Amino acid sequence: MYTEPLYSNRIPVTMVKDHVYCPAIPWIKRFLGYTEPRSPSMETARVDASYKEKVAEDLGLPKPWRIEVPVQGKSFP
User: Fold this and answer.
1) 35-69 pLDDT, tens digit each
2) Which of 16, 36, 45, 56 lies most in the core, judged by the most C-beta atoms within 10 Å?
């Protein structure tokens, strides 16, 4: 959910995308507090690397495996 102060100078890039699609969407999200449900691809991205390695091994995929691992920074939770 969008948590910036009401009159902040920063807006998330997804709000720009929403505004291009329909100018009412950012207003609905900001002032009515609507949040979109997580998509299946967002949920599968939360799987840890050890599980992905096990699946690759079980499927007999040749090495080297390239596994995406989420990274978090101090300023980006």
Assistant:
1) 888 887 777 666 777 888 888 899 999 988 777 76
2) 56
> If you ran DSSP here, which 8-state letter would residue 55 be given?
H
* pTM metric for this prediction: 0.42
The candidate with the shortest Cα–Cα distance to 53, out of 68, 75, 42, 36, is 68
Question: 28-53: string of b/e by CB count within 10 Å (b at 16+)?
Answer: ebeeeeeeeeeeeeeeeeeeeeeebe
| H helical segments located in the chain | 13-21, 24-32, 40-44, 49-58
- The answer to whether 19 and 25 are in contact (CB under 8 A) is yes
